[in-house]
Every structure is written in C-alpha cells, then in structure tokens.
Amino acid sequence: AQPSAPRVTKRARDGSIALTGRQGERSDTLRAAAVAQPDHAAVLSLAWSPASRYLAAGSADASVRIFDMTTQKQALQLRGHRAAVGALAWNGNEVHVASASAAGDILVHRVQGTVAVICRAATASGAAVSALAWSPFHVSHLAAGADDGSVGLWDARPAANRAAAANQASAVHV
Asked: Which one, of 88, 87, 93, 89, lies nearest residue 139 by Cα?
C-alpha cells in the first residue's frame, strides 16, 4: 500500500507550507526557494499531483512552485502569469499542471522532461479564473471557471502549427 500524503495545515505569507502527519503531529515545512519579496509570496492555491509525488503551490507573486514530496524540496518555479495564481490542476499523468490567475490567464506547463509552457489561454472577459479541472477521459481537455460565471472548455494540446495558432488553446465557452 502506498503511504498517505502528509496533510497541509498552514500556508504562510512567505510561501512556506506546514505539513502534518496522520495524527496531527507537525512533520515538516516546505520552504519556497529564493523568495525576493517574502511578503508577496503568500500561497493562494494548492494542488496535489494524482500520485501525491508533487505539490503545486500558486502564489501571490504570480508564480507556481512545484515541491517534490520525496525530497520535500522545491523542484521548480514556473513563471508567466500577470497576476496572483489562484487555481491549479494536475493532469492524470503528472506531466502537466494547469494554472490560472486573477488576470484571467491560463497556462499549461510541462513539468517532466523539458520544462515549458505548452499552452496559453485566457477567459474571453478577462475575469479571474477560480477553478480548473482536467477531464478524466480526455487528457488534454481542461475546464476553467471564471469569477464572472463563465466556463471555458479548452483543448490544451500543443498546436500542430505553432506559427498559425500562436500556441493558444482552442476554447468553447458555455
């Protein structure tokens, strides 16, 4: 049996995340690496990868930090947002993490192999995105819920013709 993931009990303004064990005992603290302005590194959103190997933390400094839970160290810092990151979602194979910001931008990052943004999208209204979810049946389909009540359904596959598509996702708004 796979050991259970530690519980997140506290998120601090400096980007650190306190973890506790099954019985509530404090087990460790994940610390953000190289925080230039600790007051702007507050953790606003969290998402466990499907196998609990990684923990993604969306931050007020417009970045996403990926913590490797086997080492309990920050493995990556993903940038590219224009505002605080308030929503995160891992796809089923732990290769991609989607993140969305208060400015309405959505990024899909590849975090295995060569780290890169493979897809960019935005809400039609520019409203903040507060929810993201990958389809359990189609690994590239992503749903995004915005604060204005709109829902976008995105095909987040990298465009076959990057020059023509400018690496934008295709969307159906409902």
From this structure: 93
Question: 71-106, pLDDT tens digit by residue?
Answer: 989 999 999 999 999 999 999 888 999 999 999 999
Pairwise CA distance, residues 67 & 6, whole Å: 13
Between CA 52 and CA 36 the distance in angstroms is 28
Task: Compute the distance between CA of residue 119 and CA of residue 100 in angstroms, rounded to an integer.
Answer: 12
Q: Structure pTM?
A: 0.79
In this structure, what are the phi and psi dihedrals at residue 163, rounded to the nearest 5 degrees?
-65, -45
**Number of C-beta neighbours around residue 130 at 10 A:** 14
At residue 141's C-alpha, the angle toward residues 4 and 124, to 5°, is 120
